[in-house]
Design goal:
The complex is a heterodimer. By secondary structure, chain A is of the alpha/beta class. Chain A has a domain of 189 residues: 3-Layer(aba) Sandwich (Rossmann fold), CATH 3.40.50. Chain A is built from 13 helices and twelve strands. In chain A, the strands form two sheets. Chain A has an eight-stranded mixed sheet, sandwiched between helices. In chain A, helix 4 runs parallel beside helix 7. The longest helix of chain A has 18 residues. Chain A is globular, with a radius of gyration of 21 Å. Chain A starts with 6 loop residues before the first strand and ends with a helix. By secondary structure, chain B is mainly alpha-helical. Chain B has one domain: MetI-like fold (Orthogonal Bundle). In chain B, helix 2 crosses helix 3, helix 6 packs antiparallel against helix 9 and helix 9 packs antiparallel against helix 11. The longest helix of chain B is centred in the first third of the chain and has 37 residues. The radius of gyration of chain B is 23 Å and the shape is elongated. The two termini of chain B are 16 Å apart. Classes of the chains: A alpha/beta, B mainly alpha.
């Protein structure tokens, strides 16, 4: 079983309750996360990437949201079938989560050490003293200098980068197998960003941690991830190894995203953009959800939803007219 | 934003020139002073507070009796010192029970919302519909006069302010990012509410409790004055004022000194409330 994926998501559907019924905002998302793998989940705001990860934790923000289909398997466990008490053991114990804004995601009136120790005590039932000793050890692992003294500090006494390290320490206190990182570097400046990415890579290597990395920054993805999943309008547009996706994107949306990166345009020319706006939940286009903005769209795209088909080894795309590997160079 | 920050910082600097937080310092000194008096009353009081000296009735303040004596020949100075014990106890217990009840109710109402919130808020509306003192007097009348009746009445009536304060804070805080993060660590509702939201929501109530202490102290004195609280011959400032009022034209010291004591302790709490608010506000 060790060769199997740590986390396996199949046809995950999250819907929002509207007067006329359930409307899917995450629609049939499937992916596998292998041990020690970093998966980049990329997409525009509102593409459903954060919602997908909230669904993995079964922490959907709001009573009108619910998982309406699919399965989430963590090792042997089916998370969608667990009751709330069992799910609490999974959260923080087996799946950790870190967020974009560390200053607001740490309790302002509790010391960093106490916050880490609380998690350890909660999940492992360690004694107060033992939990604090472990907390200091975790702080050391995430690169906080003088961890014994800093464990007694409050979040406001930390700098932005240190706070992000502290939040990683809280999330990793109980040695989860999977870490969900929801735009962990977006709020940091570039040098600190690089340090945090380095830290996540180190933790992956030393602990065999699997990471789902949510971001809209393709630059960050290409530095860190092993594979990339691109979401558009609540569906997966493309999924594959990083090299394949960056070098030879098949889905026109992915290709468009890559061309929007500052490095892709020649000096002195305008950056390319993808025209139009991403669709909203209540106004999803028929057929392929990208067709109103797609340069390659044909009649079929308006009427039929493209299947998520394999275009290469381990590389899938949902497009009727995928871009060929050769055409990319010709542009 | 930058402008506000800088003027704010200058304000803080000016306060520090005045010797830090002036209100907090003065308030803490007054309350601490009375606390020391209360604790050491048996040692520093020159007489037994209930000892009646028939040969020394209604003596004006002098060397033997610094605050004079009352109509039973009891030493007013000793009674004021001993009274500090009762009155500090009144302001402490009269605040702590409503505080604890109110904070718990407010946290539950704010966190769970829905039917629970509606039910608890309607109970608050019912309590609010009665005039504060009338309701207290009614409860004490039912339970019978005495300090414990006063505390029970205070707890039954006083919690609503704390409940409303904490509820409004928890309503905001439960959607805060750190509450979401706590959920992602697997924590249950009670732990998030008790360990993470309440400590963050309680600051306003702590400040309020100090000004509430003033109210409770005056209430306690008033209730005792009406004969429903502390019973004679126990030394308590409210009773002393009540007992002395018949002699106000001939022996002003019987009422004046306990009156000054009440005012000074109340002012101490007031300063403490202001200073604490300032201090916590700045620190936040």
């Amino acid at each position: 079983m060790s060769a199997g994926p740590v986390l396996s998501v199949r046809d995950l559907t999250v819907s929002v309750a509207r007067d006329e019924g359930w409307r899917p905002i995450v629609d049939g998302v499937s992916f596998d996360l292998q041990a020690g793998q970093i998966l980049g989940l990329v997409g525009e705001s509102g593409s459903g990437k954060s919602m997908t990860c909230r669904a993995l934790m079964r922490l959907l923000p709001g009573a009108r949201l619910a998982i309406t289909g699919g399965s989430i398997r963590l090792g042997e466990e089916e998370l969608t079938a667990l009751d709330e008490a069992a799910m609490r053991k999974v959260r923080g114990g087996q799946i950790g989560m870190i967020f974009q804004n560390p200053s607001s995601h740490l309790d302002p009136v509790m010391t960093i050490g106490a916050q880490i120790a609380e998690t350890i005590r909660f999940h492992q039932g360690a004694s107060r003293r033992e939990a604090m000793r472990q907390a200091i050890e975790v702080l050391r692992q995430v690169g906080i200098p003088d961890p014994t003294a800093r464990a007694g500090s409050y979040p406001h006494e930390f700098s932005g980068g240190m706070r992000q390290r502290a939040m990683i320490a809280v999330a990793l206190a109980c040695q989860p197998k999977v870490l969900i990182a929801d735009e962990p570097t977006t709020a940091l400046d570039v040098t600190v960003q690089a340090q945090i990415l380095r830290l996540l890579l180190d933790l992956r290597d030393s602990k065999g941690l699997s990471i789902i990395f949510i971001t809209h920054d393709l630059g960050v993805v290409s530095q860190t991830c092993d594979s990339i999943a691109v979401m558009y309008g609540g569906r997966l547009a493309e999924l594959g190894p990083k090299r394949d996706i960056i070098r030879a994107a098949r889905h026109p949306y992915t290709a468009g995203l890559i061309r929007c990166q500052p490095g892709a345009a020649a000096t002195g020319t305008y950056l390319e953009t993808i025209p139009g706006q991403p669709p909203t939940v209540d106004a999803m286009p028929s057929g392929c959800r990208f067709h109103p903005r797609c340069p390659r769209a044909g009649e079929t795209c308006r009427e039929h939803q493209p299947a998520f088909i394999s275009v290469d080894l381990g590389h899938r795309a949902a497009c009727h007219f995928p871009e060929g590997p050769g055409q990319e160079a010709a542009r | 934003m930058l402008l506000v920050r800088s003027s704010h910082a200058r304000f803080g600097w000016r306060l520090r020139l005045l010797g830090g937080n002036a209100a907090l310092t003065i308030g803490a000194l007054i309350v601490l002073g009375w606390l020391v008096v209360a604790l050491t009353a048996p040692l520093i009081a020159p007489y037994d507070p209930i000892f009646q000296d028939a040969t020394a009735r209604l003596q004006s303040p002098g060397w033997l009796h610094p605050f004079g004596t009352d109509n039973f020949g009891r030493d007013v100075f000793a009674r004021v010192l001993w009274g500090a014990r009762i009155d500090l106890q009144i302001s402490f217990l009269g605040v702590i029970f409503p505080f604890m009840i109110g904070a718990s109710v407010g946290a539950i109402a704010g966190y769970f919302g829905g039917v629970v919130d509606m039910l608890l808020m309607r109970i608050i509306d019912i309590v609010l519909a009665f005039p504060f003192l009338v309701l207290m007097l009614a409860i004490i009348a039912i339970l019978g006069p005495g300090l414990s009746s006063f505390y029970i009445a205070m707890a039954l009536v006083g919690w609503i302010s704390y409940a409303r304060l904490v509820r409004s804070q928890v309503l905001v805080l439960k959607h805060a990012d750190f509450a979401v993060a706590a959920r992602s660590l697997g924590f249950g509702h009670m732990r998030i509410m008790g360990r993470h939201l309440l400590p963050n929501a309680i600051l306003g109530s702590v400040v309020f409790s100090m000004s509430d202490a003033v109210l409770v102290l005056l209430n306690g004195a008033a209730i005792s004055y009406l004969g429903l609280g502390v019973q004679p011959p126990v030394a308590e400032w409210g009773i002393m004022v009540a007992e002395g009022q018949g002699f106000i034209t001939t022996a002003w010291w019987i009422t004046a000194f306990p009156g000054i004591a009440i005012v000074s302790l109340a002012m101490g709490f007031s300063f403490l409330a202001d200073g604490l608010g300032e201090w916590l506000g700045v620190r936040e």
